[in-house]
Design a protein that fits this description.
By secondary structure, this protein is mostly helical. The protein has ten helices and no strands.
Amino acid sequence: ALSEAHETRDDLAMGTALKAACLAAARPCDAERQLELAAELATVSERLGDEEGAATALCTRRQAELQIGADRPHETQAQIRLGATAATHAAARSYYEIWSAGGPILTGDLAAAEVELANLPAAMAGYVGNVSFIHAVYPSYLFTVRWMQGRLAEVLPLVAAAAEAMAELATWTSALAMAR
């Protein structure tokens, strides 16, 4: 669909196809592709005045930057933009909450991470995008916090369920081995 949209040179068609492509590329091995798609979607969304497209572009770029360990120079901008968009778009609201929960984990602020994690399941309930991604977020965040606290045994059932549900991700098999 994306190549066809490119051929038409119609911004609306391209924006729609790019949003779908961003969701389809939301896999751990596609960070470079995600960055390319995000940049193009941001440009098209700006021309269209499409806030949802802009939020999707920011989410996609942020996710890719996290995957490749890149510096996060646009994190504050993304948080502000998503916060403004979150009131009207369930996916943006969910990403905003996910990033809010992830920030304290990245900085090692475990007390703040606990507070954010308490809010995360409710935020995930409204998510309408890549469901397998969203269901991986809460267990992975909780695993990370409990690991940093030396309390992995508490999350063994959650990690075992995630490893079974997402067997294609070797990460969960490894996490399960660590939790045991």
